[in-house]
């Protein structure tokens, strides 16, 4: 007797009714932004609950297919070579998604004793409980358990479970800082931090393995080019990634000196990311071979000249004017550019005569930028995930209002959150030189000021403090 068939049929009918009502009534288009945000959150929660069912069912398929005799496996009974193929057939997902389902099931599903039939404890009980409650789905499960499982057998199972308990608390919004529920990316950062804190000796054996496997090999030249393959040491890959970021950051533009105002360069770029990375590597190799200089981010002020009346800049009204552009730009754009460029104050009389020229007030230099990046880790807006190399530095107290160009007044923001900070609703303040943010009304229910960082160094220190208390 199928114990779930009728309930699943009823659930499917209910979901179909909701979907058809949403489509026919154009619910998403007619709702306010707050309503749409709540709807997406609710839909995602339902999706996580359904994922929990699918994960448990996948775990049972894995158990029934874990038999040394091939003909006695569930997969063989249904004409499939393995669990991945069976999941592909039944769920219509790709192999990578099927593999993720199996890893999630292995991490949270309670096993059954083959001798007594007793249900055993799951490897990560708190992660399983969060899954059953709809707090986390496949992404969250793997984000938490993946880094912790890599520490076995050097770290005991009990210590891994304890660390998972703390990260799960972050997922529920009940962590040490009582921050709002964390997304999967932040959960992965927290889990990686705990894995490093618990596995103090784990890096050394990993490094020895990486040293043995390091390689770069140029293949045989063909009409289509020269293939390249290999394995980089982590620090070498990090350096190469920094070079890529310097070239591929969306906030960086390269001007063609041959272009004229009448014939602007087209903005379209048909290159794939892989092609752009190839070109970035080629440029870096050429520069290194000729002069030893490499591209940097934030090392120089932008060359774009923007003028704006000081009163308009303070009031936030009126327009600014960009050199080479006939159309005025928003004062908000001038503020954004001023945060990433040099500011020079010029005083003039009503008739236009210049009476005073101030010196250029430089923005954050490269030393300040490195310090801020170490403190913040990346864009400080929770859940953003843009790394420090792609971020700009924002004056928390505006430069035009007397805000100093000091690390105590600068935070990392990605281009989007920097440019549209006033619109997206996040608030930022500095408290003793440490950035804090307050969530907008549409983000959760807890809107207190919170310390934020994705810096591995700061997160590891916090983990150590918790371990010693």
Automatic annotation (TrEMBL):
It comes from Microbacterium laevaniformans. InterPro entries: DUF222 (IPR003870), HNH_nuc (IPR003615). This is HNH nuclease domain-containing protein. It comes from the Bacteria. SMART domains: HNHc. Residues 367-419 form the HNH nuclease domain. It holds the Pfam family DUF222.
């Amino acid at each position: 007797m199928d114990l779930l068939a009728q309930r699943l049929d009823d659930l499917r009918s209910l979901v179909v009714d909701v979907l058809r009502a949403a489509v026919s009534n154009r619910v998403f288009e007619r709702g306010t932004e707050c309503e749409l945000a709540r709807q997406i959150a609710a839909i995602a929660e339902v999706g996580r609950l359904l994922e929990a069912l699918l994960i448990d069912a996948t775990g049972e398929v894995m158990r029934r297919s874990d038999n040394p005799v091939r003909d006695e496996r569930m997969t063989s009974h249904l004409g499939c070579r393995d669990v991945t193929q069976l999941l592909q057939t039944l769920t219509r997902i790709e192999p990578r998604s099927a593999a993720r389902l199996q890893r999630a099931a292995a991490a949270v599903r309670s096993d059954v004793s083959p001798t007594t039939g007793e249900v055993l404890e799951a490897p990560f009980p708190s992660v399983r409980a969060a899954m059953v409650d709809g707090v986390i789905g496949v992404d969250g499960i793997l984000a938490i358990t993946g880094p912790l499982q890599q520490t076995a057998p050097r770290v005991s199972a009990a210590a891994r479970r304890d660390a998972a308990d703390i990260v799960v608390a972050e997922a529920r919004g009940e962590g040490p800082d009582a921050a709002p529920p964390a997304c999967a990316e932040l959960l992965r950062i927290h889990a990686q931090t705990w894995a490093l804190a618990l596995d103090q000796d784990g890096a050394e054996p990993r490094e020895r393995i990486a040293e043995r496997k390091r390689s770069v090999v140029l293949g045989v030249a063909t009409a289509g080019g020269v293939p390249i393959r290999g394995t980089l040491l982590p620090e070498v890959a990090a350096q190469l990634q920094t070079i890529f970021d310097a070239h591929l950051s969306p906030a960086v533009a390269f001007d063609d000196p041959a272009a004229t105002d009448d014939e602007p360069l087209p903005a379209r770029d048909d290159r794939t990311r892989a092609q752009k990375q190839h070109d970035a590597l080629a440029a870096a190799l050429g520069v290194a071979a000729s002069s030893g200089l490499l591209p940097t981010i934030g090392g120089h002020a932008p060359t774009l000249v923007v003028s704006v009346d000081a009163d308009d800049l303070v009031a936030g009204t009126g327009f600014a004017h960009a050199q080479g552009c006939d159309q005025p730009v928003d004062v908000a754009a001038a503020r954004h550019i001023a945060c990433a460029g040099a500011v020079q104050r010029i005083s003039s009389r009503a008739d236009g005569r210049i009476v005073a020229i101030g010196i250029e007030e430089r923005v954050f230099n490269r030393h300040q930028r490195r310090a801020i990046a170490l403190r913040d880790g990346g864009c400080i807006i929770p859940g953003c995930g843009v790394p420090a190399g792609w971020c700009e530095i924002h004056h928390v107290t505006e430069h035009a209002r007397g805000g100093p160009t000091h690390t105590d007044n600068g935070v990392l923001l990605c281009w989007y959150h920097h440019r549209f900070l006033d619109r997206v609703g996040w608030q930022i303040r500095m408290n003793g030189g440490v950035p804090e943010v307050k969530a907008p009304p549409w983000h959760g229910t807890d809107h207190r000021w919170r310390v934020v960082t994705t810096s591995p160094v700061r997160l590891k220190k916090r983990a150590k403090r918790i371990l010693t208390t």
